[in-house]
Amino acid sequence: MRLTTLIFFAATSIAASAFAAGPTIEVSRAVARASAPGQPAAAVYLTIRNSGPGADKLLRIATPVAAAAELHTMSMTGNVMKMREVPEIAIAANTTLTMASGDGYHVMLTGLKQPLIAGQPVPLSLTFEKAGIVDAQVDVGALTAAY
Length: 147
Ligand SMILES: [Cu+2]
What we know:
Distance between the termini: 60 Å
Bound molecules: copper (II) ion
Number of domains: 1
CATH topology: Immunoglobulin-like
CATH class: Mainly Beta
Number of strands: 10
Helix content: 10-25%
Number of helices: 1
Radius of gyration: 19 Å
CATH superfamily: PCu(A)C copper chaperone
């Protein structure tokens, strides 16, 4: 293969990747309350914007401050609040998912390795099916903060 041919193929593959437009994911808000001493788990609330054009799925979350980060959903059954783990969270194109306490999705940090301290942000790494890894920073608020 001649050098000019190689250059041609290199140029077309760059152009192809630029046009392979997948979902554009942005984590615009990540918050958690400070944890009490000895508290083993903590909830994190995210706002995830998918500005399109395709749908995506949040598959995994990791943070160095906890043994695990699970995707949870919360729902009311009568007067009882029930929490369960979900394998993934779908985020349709051109939608914003806003997590809040009391209902819907949240991220549960389990096996906290250190307390969450108000004013000291912690890193979070989110893995999406299409967008890949998106890094975010969790702002830690007061123990009594309303999210
Ligand atoms: Cu939970």
